[in-house]
Structures are given as structure tokens and as C-alpha cells.
Amino acid sequence: MGNDTAVRRLDLGYFVRPASETGGPQPRVEPVLAYLVRRDDRLILFDTGVGAVDPETEAHYRPQRRALESALAAAGVTLADVSLVVNCHLHFDHCGGNPLLGGKPILVQAVELAAARRGGYTIDQLIDFPGATYEEIDGEVEVWPGVRIIPTPGHTEGHQSLVVRQSDGTVVLAGQAHDFASHFASDHLAHHAARQGLEQPLPTYQPWLERLSDFDPQRVLFAHDCSVWEPPHRNG
Question: What residues contact 44, with CB distance under 8 A and at least 6 apart?
Fold first, then answer.
């Protein structure tokens, strides 16, 4: 594989978002997706699935979990093979497997970790557990050559995405920066229209889309949507 970097999706189950949170009359079943980023013998695990929660939260979301160990085994790796962990944010459905990875570096925005530790934000036992090893960052950082963490606040103040340059184009692991690929597509087009100087009014969009556009992403993948965004006209 040389210096190329592979990205693989992991299915870690699903949960049911109640109608009170969907903005519509019905509940919605959403996948829980994580991603492996592999270069040679090094592995980044981006998100770790749904953790153990209190009975009230369990009843509210009715999560159906796939064990992280099983998902990794299907990809031909084990917990021990993971080099480091990146969570898009620290809600319980994104960092649930972190306690299985004690001693592994967890890269997190400092503002996100601070929010998680204030209480009432997530499940406390998923944050400070035996062997928890955080590397707090403040803003953008290069993890490996061609692999960068980019702050994408919105869903939470400390939300972050992972940008992975591959030989056939850049992949963005966007976590929950957008709930759906279609929402990202709408914001991306709004940004494109604004850059072309189209007259207002136009929809607003997150300022960090400007930074993501610098990488000319060819695929954008999400935490709760199996759809993949691709540009209408791919370069190549």
C-alpha cells in the first residue's frame, strides 16, 4: 500500500431518534457508523459507537449495539491494533467504546473535553475511565502527513472532522457536522453560490465549509447516514 491511506466504514448498530427530535411526526432509525483509517501498520479509529447509558436514556433512544470488537474483527483488526482514537465529539453514541481502548491516545478538542467534564453533557463514565489518555488540541492539527483534524463546530462547540488525502482524492470523515449527506450537499451548494457572487438572499452555512473546500473533497462520510456525498463533477 506504500504511503496510501485506506478508509473503511464500521457498522456499530443503530438507535431510534424519537419524533420529538426529528422535527416530524415519526421517529427515525439512524445508523451508528465509525471509520478505520489505515496507513501501513498504523490505524486511526474515528468514533467508537454507543456506550452504556442510564435506563432513561436507553428507553429514550432504544440503541441496538454492535460490539466494537466484532466490527473490528470483520475488518481484520483488533483493539490492540488501534494506534489512536479520534472522536468527532464526546456524546455517548460516538465515544461509547473509548473505555475499551485505555492507554491509546484520544485526540479531542480541548473545548469539547471541558464541556464533557462539566457534567450533564454525556455519560461521565465514558469520559474519565481507567487508562483514559487524552491529547487535547486547539484547532486544526496534522495527525499524519495528509491526515488532518479540522474543527467543524455546530452540533457541539468542539466538534471536529478528519480530512484524509488519498491517491484518488480527499475523503472527509464529517461525523455529525451534518446529520445527513443531503444537508451537507445543500450547504456546500450555498457556499458555492456565495463564492460565485450570486445575489442575496442565500442560505447561511457553517464558516468552516470554506476551509473544507480548500481540500477539494471527493467524498464526505457521516456518522448517522450511510449515504456518501460526492461532488457533481469529480476531478480526475
Answer: 36, 37, 38, 82, 83, 84, 85, 86, 143, 147, 162
pLDDT for the residue 2: 42
- Grid coordinates belonging to 219: 467524498
Residue type, 189: L
Question: 483509517: which residue's cell?
Answer: 37
**CA distance linking residue 191 with residue 202, whole number of Å:** 9
d(CA 151, CA 107): 12
Query: DSSP alpha helices (H): ranges in the chain?
Result: 19-22, 55-61, 68-74, 110-117, 181-195, 209-213
- Asked if 173 and 165 touch (Cβ cutoff 8 Å), the reply is no
- Write the CB contacts of 79 (distance below 8 Å, at least 6 apart in sequence): 68, 69, 72, 100, 101
Q: Does pTM top 0.70 for this prediction?
A: yes
Higher pLDDT, 31 or 233: 31
Q: Classify residue 76 as left (phi > 0), alpha (psi -120 to 50) or beta.
A: left
